[in-house]
Structure formats: C-alpha cells, structure tokens
C-alpha cells in the first residue's frame, strides 16, 4: 500500500486543477490550494514514515 502513496498528491492536484478550469480560475488564483495539498501530503508521508519506523518494518 505504501508504494501507492505518491498517488495522493497527484490525484488531489489533478482534481484541484480540473476544479479551477471548470470555474474559470487561473493557476495563479488557485496556488493556495496546491500549497494546502503539498502540506497535507507531506503530513501523511511523515505519519506513515513514523508508523513504519515505530513498528520496525
């Protein structure tokens, strides 16, 4: 399962990009959303790393 974790930011970014295009917004206007996606994905990666480290896998 951990090998598919890269899909989280990829899918979220594509969905955010589609949302921006459908509503007629530019990428510049939606930059904050991409930053939030990056922060959320980093948090998930850190949690999974800590869990793997704590369980000794």
Shape verdict:
elongated
Number of helices: 2
Task: Please give the radius of gyration in angstroms.
Answer: 14 Å
Q: Supply the helix-strand structural class.
A: mainly alpha
- Helix-strand sequence: HH
Description:
By secondary structure, this protein is an all-alpha fold. It has one domain (2-55). The chain has helices at residues 7-22, 31-55. The longest helix is centred in the C-terminal third of the chain and has 25 residues, at 31-55.
Give the helices and strands, then pairings.
Blueprint: H1 7-22, H2 31-55
Helix pairs in contact: 1-2
Notable traits:
single chain, 57 residues, mainly alpha, 2 helices, elongated
Give the structure's gist in a few sentences.
The protein is mostly helical.
